[in-house]
Write a structure and sequence with these properties.
This protein is mainly beta and 86 residues long. It contains 1 helix and 5 strands.
Length: 86
């Protein structure tokens, strides 16, 4: 999301900016950003259920060189809702 900032500014200046994505819970505009998490061992995975040893996850983002995983997305801080792209 952050890489699209200049493009979004240009579209807005030309009057071509699209309507912001709205929160499905409250209807207010959601804020773009990135969720950053530490991932020194194996990247980031999705788990349908929590488990003590975090096994059988579906890999989402591979292990990065620097130890941080970044997921771009949108946030509604009022509803505490994240919408993430991966």
């Amino acid at each position: 999301m952050m890489g699209h900032t200049r493009r979004n500014e240009l579209l807005e200046a030309l009057g071509l900016a699209k309507e912001p994505t709205r929160c499905p819970k409250c209807g207010r505009p959601m804020s773009p950003g990135s969720l950053g998490t530490q991932a020194f061992v194996g990247g980031s995975s999705w788990y349908p259920e929590r488990s003590m040893f975090a096994v059988r996850g579906d890999p989402i983002v591979p292990q990065p060189m620097g130890g941080m995983v970044w997921l771009d997305g949108l946030r509604c801080s009022d509803c505490r809702l994240l919408q993430l792209d991966y």
